[in-house]
Amino acid sequence: MITCFIRYEIDPFKKDAFTEYARNWGQVIPKNGADLIGYFAPHEGSATTAYGVYNIESLAAYEAYRASLAADPLGRENYEFSRRERFILREDRIFLKNVSAPHAKLVLP
User: What are phi and psi for residue 75, nearest 5 degrees?
Assistant: First the structure.
């Protein structure tokens, strides 16, 4: 299993558009084969940094997932929405592997 971290630089005056974009992916990504952890928008600190995070089985599975996403009507519509509204200024992806698992149980006070 690998985790894809997408770092976005967004227009701070178009956070609502990014939120709509993220909610759309919340429907599309799981339907097309990736385990969505979530999209995260600015709250405190930077007003321009946002993230999307999901798990996928392998880079080969990622390629199949990307093809499926591109063929999905809502996926295509969401890509077009981001191009039209121009709220994403920059987007970078990195694939990481969780090397700390298995984790201990959370200890509460």
Answer: -65, -45
Beta-sheet strands, E only, within the chain: 2-10, 35-40, 49-56, 88-96
For 61, counting Cβ atoms within 10 Å of its Cβ (0-12 exposed, 13-18 middle, 19+ buried), the class is middle
pTM of the predicted protein model: 0.89
Tokens, residue 46:
């930077």
Bond preceding residue 109 cis, omega within 30 of 0 = no
Return the sign of the alpha-carbon dihedral for residues 46, 47, 49, 55.
positive
Domains and CATH numbers, the chain: 2-96 (3.30.70.100)
d(CA 52, CA 101): 21
End-to-end CA distance of the chain: 32
* 101's tokens: 């698992």
Chain segment 6-53, per-residue pLDDT in tens: 999 999 999 999 999 999 999 999 999 999 999 999 999 899 999 999
